[in-house]
Amino acid sequence: MNDVKYDFGMVGLGVMGSNLLLNMADHGFAVIGYDKNPDKTKLFEASADKDTIVKGVNKLQDMIDQLKMPRKIMMLVPAGIAVDSVISELVPALDKGDIIIDGGNSHYIDTLKRIKILEQQGLHFMGIGISGGEEGARRGPSIMPGGDKEAYKEIEPILKAVAAKADGQPCVGYLGKDAAGHYVKMVHNGIEYAIMELLSESYDLLHNGLGYTNEDLHKLFLEWDNGEMKSFLIEITAAIFNKKDEKVTDKFLVDMILDKAGAKGTGKWTSQEGLDLPMPIPTIDSAVMMRNLSSLIDERIAAQKLYNTKLKTIDTDKNEFEKNLHDALLFATIISYAQGLAMLTTASIELKMDIPLPEVVRVWRGGCIIRSALLDNFTKAYENAELKNLLLDENIAAMLQQKEPGIQKIISSAALNNYPLAGFMASFTYYNAYRRNLLPTNLIQAQRDFFGAHTYERIDGVGIFHTEWETKAETISTKHLD
Ligand code: 6PG
Predict the structure, then answer these.
(1) What percent of the chain shows pLDDT beyond 90?
(2) How far from the centroid of its chain's Cα atoms is residue 336's Cα?
(3) Does 152 map to a domain?
(4) Distance of CA 475 to the CA centre of its chain
């Protein structure tokens, strides 16, 4: 057996796996990566900086033999069967106490099952969410670990070293028991879907409604990225509007891209989980729905002909519209986070994961796709660790109330001009419903009791009631007389 000398091992030297290992190596850790493909191991070794300790191997056993104990092995492979097949290859070759980490976007239920199975074999299995894409992996991602606390302590120094830093603090922290890491990452992605949807709706209004060119859009998004909603997603959106096509050189690339949004599942899982808890996350749901609707291209084309749909020009003052849209976007973005964070608060209790919400907000401040200046406001709000929903924080309430006229006007002009605005409308509806002490759902209770004897509660006392709704007036009076 070779000398055990490497601090960390990686299965899968794709873009994410190799960049994360190189990041670790930059921070002084000795790292070893396994990939069946010799081209990948060669490229990995060639990409390492001088004076770093980096090795690529093409046999899994070679990696296992050269790791320090307890072994710390991460896999960054596609979610699903690939994860199970790596586990089944690893398990027979490992020793009790070794740590296997799934750093991909696995479904948290799968992670829970894997934790239980591997626990019986004396192995630690951890689900860790990693956000930030290729660049993040290389220069500093946001890392969302959950699971066994002892195992976390073993890997904490490495994760802290490689994570993005926000105000000098590493964007990593223990985020709860069992599959909490993958749960938090799933909700992170749900919020990511919601904000991306809001940005695409903003683009639609500006481009199709007001005739903004890509140059105009680039300029406006850059402006927004220099203000109170500075964020990674706005920054890359500004850059997208500036990118020329390489094939058709007088075009911008964004105009050449088919309007059919893909999805790998994390947004859908967030919606499914929201329904199961249940916790309302309508902005995230609408984002998932719009991606699905976007794929019905043939039907959309047929419907456009049938309805003779024309994109209407929105007749408005541009400066005023820009200001209102800015406020609407900020408003709906806050609502998207509020929904995701409230879902985490409930899931933490219901699924017994003990997710520390202030820590989640802290970890999202840097490195991840949803990093934004707004997280500073949320950090303040979550100084109250018992906060159930961002909307219940006084400062956030004041921000939302201040931006309310903006979203009212944007939604009104979109509706009057037939622009779909699922994300903005869902956010505004959530806001208007959430802050009402009375909703019209008393009528729904009455209807349920009418046709199905589903019973209801009353506002003037405790108890469960049922009424024979169809009893005729004469019968009632007869009964009364009796
Ligand atoms: C991240 C991203 C990353 C991935 C998304 C894409 O945090 O770095 O979320 O995990 O790009 O999962 O998801 P879709 O393909 O579903 O849009």
Answers:
(1) 96
(2) 10
(3) yes
(4) 57
Q: Could you tell me if the CB of 104 is within 6 A of ligand 1?
A: no
Whether residue 2 is contained in a domain is answered as no
**pLDDT at 366 > cutoff 90:** yes
CA atoms within 13 A of residue 404's CA, in its CB half-sphere? 11
Co-location of 60 and 154 in the same domain: yes
Across 315-332, average pLDDT: 98
CA-nearest residue for atom 1, ligand 1, is: 131
Distance 300 CA to ligand 1 centre (A): 26
Residue nearest atom 10 of ligand 1, based on CA coordinates: 131
Does residue 263 line the site of ligand 1, with CB under 6 A? yes
**74 token code pair:** 């991460």
Select which of 72, 192, 359, 409 is catalytic.
Answer: 192
Residues 415, 459 within the same domain: no
Answer yes or no: do 151 and 201 share one domain.
no
- Number of domains the chain is built from: 3
The predicted pLDDT at position 473 comes to 56
Closest ligand 1 atom, residue 261 Cα:
17
- Is the model's pLDDT at 4 over the cut of 80? no
Q: Given the structure tokens 């990686």, which residue do they identify?
A: 10
Range of lowest pLDDT (16-30, 248-262, 345-359, 460-474): 460-474
Compute the distance from residue 200 Cα to the ligand 1 centre, in Å.
17
Q: Which atom of ligand 1 is nearest to the CA of 193?
A: 17
- Statement to judge: residues 319 and 395 lie in one domain: yes
Confidence of residue 385 (pLDDT cuts 50, 70, 90): confident
State whether the beta carbon of 405 lies less than 6 angstroms from ligand 1.
no
Note whether residue 97 is domain-resident. yes
How many residues does this entry show for the chain?
482
The domain containing residue 265 runs over which residues?
A: 185-434
400-443 pLDDT tens trace: 999 999 999 999 999 999 999 999 999 999 999 999 999 999 99
Look up 185 and say whether it is catalytic: yes
In sequence order, what DSSP letters do the residues of 328-372 get, joined into one string?
HHHHHHHHHHHHHHHHHHHHHHHTT----HHHHHHHTTSSSTT-B
Q: Is 105 in the pocket of ligand 1 (CB under 6 A)?
A: yes
Q: Which atom of ligand 1 sits closest to the CA of residue 369?
A: 7
Active site residue 192: yes
pLDDT score of 472: 62
Pairwise CA distance, residues 69 & 60, whole Å: 16
Domain contains 380? yes
**CA 175 to CA 163: how far, in whole Å?**
15
